[in-house]
Design goal:
Helix content is 34%, strand content 22%. The protein has 157 residues and is an alpha+beta fold. Strand 5 and strand 6 (58-64) form a beta hairpin.
């Protein structure tokens, strides 16, 4: 059930789980783990979930690192009352689109995350979105944020 690859030294590195594999509507197989890890490398990203099964392209749900994002917004003079207002700001959206562009360098075109939806709060064990070992429960999160996901795939966006 694991997906892996051999590194330069000949060691097998496990990179994902087969059950998490995304198959796009074009038939391309995409392992979400490496993409999620790339997104998490950004100081502005706290949590990420890559989606796109049976869809035209790959997208992601992203929970910002609000500590880093708020510091950035204060530095830029961006005023906000709450997380919803902050993630809805056009400058914040531009920051995340720029981060997305940089983090997806090196991935094949078909597997790069094309769009992201910023979410206003972290996923938690208490809300049944994370396992006790802090792994994201994909189906639970996808169901909870179904409207945000659908918005990513609307033709007009």
């Amino acid at each position: 059930g694991d997906i892996g690859k051999f590194d330069e030294e000949g060691f097998l590195r496990i990179t994902d789980r087969k059950k998490n594999l995304i198959v796009t509507s074009g038939g391309k197989n995409v392992a979400p783990g490496p993409l999620e890890n790339a997104l998490l490398a950004s100081k502005y990203v706290e949590q990420s979930l890559v989606i796109g099964d049976r869809r035209k392209f790959v997208s992601a749900l992203v929970v910002p690192s609000f500590e880093a994002l708020e510091a950035w917004a204060d530095e830029k003079g961006i005023k906000f009352q709450n997380h919803d207002e902050l993630i809805g700001n056009t400058e914040v959206e531009a920051l995340f689109n720029d981060e997305l562009m940089h983090t997806m360098e090196g991935f094949a075109r078909y597997e790069t995350v094309k769009k992201i939806a910023l979410l206003p709060r972290e996923w938690t064990i208490a809300d049944n979105e994370l396992t006790p070992t802090l792994k994201v429960k994909r189906k639970v999160v996808e169901k909870k944020y179904e409207k945000a996901i659908d918005t990513l795939y609307e033709e007009s966006s």
